[in-house]
Amino acid sequence: MTTARDLALIALSLPPDRAVERGDLSLALAGAEAADLLVAGALTLDGDRLVPGHRTATGDRLLERALASAVRREPWETVQDWLWRRGEELATVYAGELERAGLTAHPRRHGLRMRPARAVPVDSPEHTRAREHLASGDPVLTTLAAFLAIGDFPPDTGETPSDAGYDPDRDAAVATVLAAVGDAVTELEAVRLRRSTENDAFDNIWRG
Predict the structure, then answer these.
(1) What is the pTM of this model?
(2) Residue 161's domain spans which residues?
(3) Among 45-59, 66-80, 169-183, which stretch is predicted with the lowest mean pLDDT?
(4) Structurally, how many domains does the chain consist of?
(5) Are the CB atoms for 167 and 132 separated by under 8 Å?
(6) Taking residues 56-84, what's their average pLDDT?
């Protein structure tokens, strides 16, 4: 399981009144993919630009698709550009992938198949590991979850600790990605608030 799959499973397990905005989740998933690829050495960071290396087998179809989509010519792609491009509808992609893998399903009631807005995680070793991954305090998953208001952990965009298996250069690169995710989620929320204000103003005009 990748960080992105764990994050998707955790987000989909939330009750409807705590559901994560799909746009926010998509940005966080794109950040999780970039972080995993940096840790794997498939991407490196030059300033704020992601530089792809050799195409490395990750063992995960969506992660390999993310790497294959990386810009492979100078001046490379900024982290922010990656998040907005790769993150487009990414929450929907992961939701479909998890359902196809049998890790989520639409609940049944009295033997009838219900069709809620989204499938929810089923009891599985993968779901258990995802929850344990978050509870362990993993700095990447914890920070991304905090940006989405999942869990009780504060965001931490400082360097990830070396004892988590990261070297110093990759620590800094991952921290840069996490900070960019936080900025992007904040920017998206600002856009939503502005549109809401504009719509309210428009409604007030028509009401006289």
Answers:
(1) 0.86
(2) 3-207
(3) 45-59
(4) 1
(5) no
(6) 94
